[in-house]
Structures are given as structure tokens and as C-alpha cells.
């Protein structure tokens, strides 16, 4: 991963790097690897994540087909 520093603005480059790491899921993975996770807990967590992904995909599909109203616009 690479971030360019423009005009010696390290703060902006750091913000961009953090956003990229967040998008890639690096921070979430670091948090899960901090402590040992039992295999049964890992299965339960992964199953829950899969259910959430499936629900989100179904919701987006329903919104595209017009069955469910879309997300509200922020004011």
C-alpha cells in the first residue's frame, strides 16, 4: 500500500493511509488477532458475518427492484 505525501503535508497523508487501512479491514483483523479465539467462537462469528452480508445483499437487491424504499437522503 502506498500513500503520496504532497507539499510535506504528513497529516493529510496519514489520514489517507488510515482510511485505506480501514477500507481493507486491517484494523478489524488486528482487533480479532489480539487474543485467542476458540474455534467454536470463530465459527459463530463467521456465520453471523455471512448472515449480515446476505441480508445486506437482499436489502440492496430489493431496493434496486423497487420493492423497498431506498435509503433516506440526509439533509
UniProtKB/TrEMBL annotation:
Residues 34-75 are annotated as: Disordered. InterPro entries: Ribosomal_bS21, Ribosomal_bS21_sf. GO terms for molecular function: structural constituent of ribosome. The keyword Acetylation does not apply. Residues 34-52 have a biased composition (Basic and acidic residues). GO terms for cellular component: ribonucleoprotein complex; ribosome. Belongs to the bacterial ribosomal protein bS21 family. This is Small ribosomal subunit protein bS21. The gene is rpsU.
